[in-house]
Amino acid sequence: MNKHKKLILSIVLDAIGYVSFIIPGIGEFSDIIWAPLSGYIMTKLYKGKPGKIAGVVAFVEEALPGLDVIPTFTLMWLYSYVFKKEEAVKEV
To answer: In total, how many domains does the chain have?
Structure first.
């Protein structure tokens, strides 16, 4: 999957995480299902150790109330394709 498709998917997945704010009462129950699912999707979308760490962060962020506003998938995309890329250039 190219990086642009992965960015769009990351934004969509973050939007799904925001559903708990849109539907009061039902939203917190949706986090029971979404938290482990988002962690799993994160590990499949971003491979290796960074993906595993991001998967745990995504799970915790969705499981704890009030933290759903953090765009975890989009932040991981930025880390993978913007910040990590700059570090590789600086090392050369």
So the answer is: 1
pTM here is 0.83
The C-alpha atoms of residue 6 and residue 13 are separated, in whole angstroms, by 10
SS3 50: helix
pLDDT in tens, 73-86: 999 999 999 988 65
Report the b/e string of 26-56 with b at 16+ CB within 10 A: ebeebbeebbeebbebbbebbeeeebeebbe
Helices 26-45 and 48-63 cross at an angle (nearest 10°) of 180
Distances in Å between the Cα of 58 and the Cα atoms of 53, 67, 72, 91 are 9, 10, 6, 29
